[in-house]
Amino acid sequence: MDESEREAVLDRVTSRSATVGASVPDTVTIDGAAVDLSEFIVETRAIETVPPEVDRKVSSVKATLRAERERRIDRLRGDPRDADDGSDAPIDRGTAEALADEIVGIDRAMNALETIRHPDFADEHRAATLEGHERWLSFVDAVQ
Question: What's the pTM?
Answer without folding.
Answer: 0.66
